[in-house]
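Researcher: I'd like a structural prediction for the single chain below. Treat it as a standalone chain; there are no partners to consider.
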Amino acid sequence: MPLERRFLSGGGQTQVEIHEGSAKFLVDVERGQKTGWFCDQRENRLAAAKLAAGAEVLEVFCHTGAFGIHAALAGAASVEGLDVSQDTLAMARTHASMNKVEDRCIYRHADAFEEMRKLVKAGRRYDLVILDPPAFARSKQALAGALTGYKDVNLLGLKLLKPEGFLVTSSCSHPVSEADLWKSIRLAARDAKRDIRLIEQRGQSPDHPILASMPETRYLKCFIVQVF
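Model: Treating it as a single chain, here is the predicted structure.
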């Protein structure tokens, strides 16, 4: 069957403005992923923003910039966003302008792993690093490779943090458990020769309920750690 995008009845705008906390965003209900907005990360975005006052922030896999916009509104000194999609980066820049923080937000088209390695080599360090990657494992068969990916991306994130900085790192892969992700973070800290302290272990927002009869509904993991 051919792919179609249309209203089942009537019509309307395909971009809708929403408010989340003190921020404003545009949601593209026609071309955006899922509903056009990752509602499951709402509470985690607000939690991360509480760490952002005065911080230099790196937002990796930034998509349309939601974590970073909240950080900027919370008083971040600067926000750098990385993503491979030019379309989502254009939307991130629009969001920065909508929220009047465009003077503190820079977005770059880049492969996350390659750019993070360059930043490490260049000696760049941040107060807050946010990692919100796409799912690395969509099945149990992909789990081993995914765990390597999570360990590697967290290793780079940890290397990019100043002492006493914060890492906010997520996984939306259902086959990756909380224990799996935490082990990846601990192994990354060992290899980075950094001590870490768990600040919060979080999950999806309440409008994504976890059903005992459907284990796959418990899929989003988010850890906030302080790095020394």
